[in-house]
Amino acid sequence: MIAARxxxxxxxxxxxxxxxxxxxxxxxxxxxxxxNPRGLHASASRAAAPGSPQRRLQRLTAxxxxxxxxxxxxxxxxxxxxxxxxxxxGAPDSPGNCSRxxxxxxxxxxxxxxxxxxxxxxxxxxxxxxxxxxxxxLTLGQRFPDHHVWVVRASRMYLHKFSCYHNFVESNMxxxxxHSTSYSKDYGAFHHLRSLLSHAMERxxxxxxxxxxxxxxxxxxxxxxxxxxFSKGCVVLNQMVYELAGARSDPQMxxxxxxxxxxxxxxxxxxxxxETWVTDKQVLKELAESGVTVHAHVTPYEVRxxxxxxxxxxxxxxxxxxxxxxxxxxxxxxxEDEPASIENHFRVIQEF
Length: 352
Prior knowledge:
Elements: H1 3-6, H2 10-19, E1 30-32, E2 41-43, E3 56-64, E4 71-77, H3 95-100, E5 103-108, H4 116-120, H5 133-143, E6 148-152, E7 156-158, E8 162-164, H6 189-203, E9 224-230, H7 234-249, H8 254-258, E10 260-266, H9 281-289, E11 293-298, H10 300-303, H11 309-324, E12 330-333, H12 342-351
Parallel strand pairs: 5-6, 5-9, 9-10, 10-11, 11-12
Antiparallel strand pairs: 1-2, 2-3, 3-4, 4-6, 7-8
Helix pairs in contact: 7-9, 9-11
Region (Disordered): 34-56
InterPro entries: C2orf69_mit
Pfam families: C2orf69
């Protein structure tokens, strides 16, 4: 959780942005309004070797998910039209390349983060433009160079800073979740994500898109999914863990679930007083047996805050329980020897 505590640190925020330089330099996004009514397109080139293929950043607005009224805006950082030979890709229409080009990474952001133009007009948001959704998409493009990168914007930003993912999990106005431990075939985080990606892939004219419903034939060949939650965005991953047992046993959803290769928790936090990390042993046993590779990256900002000591305890329980059930979660404490700061909290997006 960022926004609820950012108010206390307003006098230091500018200092952190100037004094702490990220190890990887971010590139600005040159956005231009598109005549395409479906959204905005942007040039998303990075400092790269001459002749390297360029990735395009596309905004898709009001994409429907599990129902026409449940919509989210998304950013899509597309793989290049022609893949680089050095990356081992063939022509876009070759069978092997088709399979490799169906890898997707989906990111759920934290508080304060928003589209660049919206953050720039907010007093608090303007201090954190380096972590706008566009900039994060570009950073993730470096982390996942062979994936299409999707950034899902929270459906509501209360007071322009509190991210609320109520399309995925019941939440209060500040985005604190009320997790459901039951799975519904028509409702919930898995169902919404699948429908959201399916409709977004179709709108973006991606070849061989995921289908919103169905069994094995509805999931395209080579389709794989990596899920990344940062700060408040981790509530979406937590809800999926609670739904995992039911989703795996549902023949209409199980093949989609099997396509999830990795789940990354990046410094999870929210304004509720518990359940920042999943601690239910039976639920974590299901996660350990699912075959999903779990990654837990944290900073002192979240897990060593003396005012919210339960966050660190829950994180420890999450990792230890998965290990007890035979999983080998990848875990790392970043910036362990540095003072806890909001800047380092954000920087975990670059360092994981």
